[in-house]
Design a protein that fits this description.
20 helices, 3% strand, Serine Threonine Protein Phosphatase 5, Tetratricopeptide repeat, mainly alpha
Amino acid sequence: MKTYIKIRLIIVLSLTLMIMNNGCTKNFEELNTPPNLVTESLINVDLILTRVQYLSIVTGNPNGVGTIGNYCGYSTSCSNRPFQSGDDPGVWNAAYGSYVNNLSEIIRLTKDDPDLVNKKAIARIMKVWAFSKVTDTYGDIPYSESCLPQDQAVYRPKYDTQESIYTDFFKELKEAAAELDVSKESFGSADLIYGGDVVKWKKFANSLRLRLALRIRYADAALAKANMSDLTEADLITSREDDAFINTSTDYVDNQNPLYNRIVNNGGQGETGCWNVGKTLLDIMKDNSDPRIGIFADTAKATWIAEYDTSFGYRGHPVLGYVPVENKYPYGARSCSEWTPLWFVPVIERPVLRCSEVYFALAEAALFNIKGTPADANAYYQAGVDKAIEWAQDFYDACEPQMYETIQLYNDSTWTVDAYNEYMNFKKITQSKIDAFKALPVYTLSGSEEEQLEQIMNQKIIALFPLEYQGWAEWRRTGYPRVLVGPDNDHLAGVSPRRKMWPNNEQSVNSDSYAEALTRLNHVDNELAKVWWDANPNAPHQHPGTVEWRDQPWVGAKK
């Protein structure tokens, strides 16, 4: 049973010291202590960890339907501008403003107490996780000179190279995992992921190291191999019980699923209908009779003019941004699949790292002789598929009891009890559906080395959802999945970004370091420059499809 959020996460770290005696000088030291001073003895590192986990995972983790999800084929939205150029400071500001600075403070406050070694180690592991998203988004970033104690603060920190940052990631994860000690105090219920279970945290540290080592394999195969060679299945997250995630909760409005809250705040109108399932993700499942397809998508809801064929079934939406209206005609009027309401219930899993990802990583590592041999790849691949299906079944079971209440928010009179029961039975993943899927070629690796890699990545992209930043990283790294993008009139002309631009204010507040880092990008900060690990010369791979075009709405738009 995962730890639910059971406390209100409005954490006050600034406490006022009350001075009771104002009339004499016998308490001189007290009287000369600023009443708003926060001393170390007043700081509760447990509350700091809780707040960081809540902000970074419950509210800060992606929902899979954001702009980043376009690049790996997850989703599109009504207001889509995925190829618009400009700084995108969200990941940067959240990490430096809320996550890594607080995790650094936990490390500082616990580093000299051997009884608190587990708290220090867990903070080190989480700090690597938080920083990895920042460097994977922007490339070179302030790292070694950032988030230091106040007396050591560097106000214009240098930008470390991504290569040096990753090298330190591996050191931190190895050391932190070795520090974890089951005999010492841990965070307990303040840890919303594992309840302070140090055995599970060690598996998470090793699994995160596996993720990051695989990420760099095209840039430095030797370093990647060195950081996988000591890992065994016993060291890793290989079961659903060890998956890293936080369940949202109904104890407080802000602790509920953010997507559910958006429906509530919007009066039940327009939210699910504004997001379409990406053609890439949906086609991978539809073409292989995947039993999970109903967990992600509904069949198209088009109800427009009767003389046109409205039986679109499962129909994904290609990535279309700032394009001529004629390019959008064939995909409008709810003729594409929308996300199922299962994703909009109040209590939902907010993932960090799942066992299915671990098995797909092991499959790729074996296929390319990085860890194991090609003969091992298929067993790992099938284990990854099995675990991903198991997660989908668990997801359905957790969401189903909440669904009827959620769909009442839509104010849709067609949702009768009978219609609801029929709908949920259609979505349920039965054993017969699973057996039929496993009998298909998709369940067994075959073909060339590259064709097997594509099989692995196509299944991995499904298993990673809704972690769109991870999906984007895998697409950049391997070139898979093949994402269908339409013609675009925006700044990037339909070419998906390989990184995000540094925040604009860095040019003024940290100008010298910014300028030095800019020399490593040939003096141009742009989204098409590649980060260090993005070194696969064949990525991305061209999508074989085409985007429909109409000179009039819906003419000839039959499926």
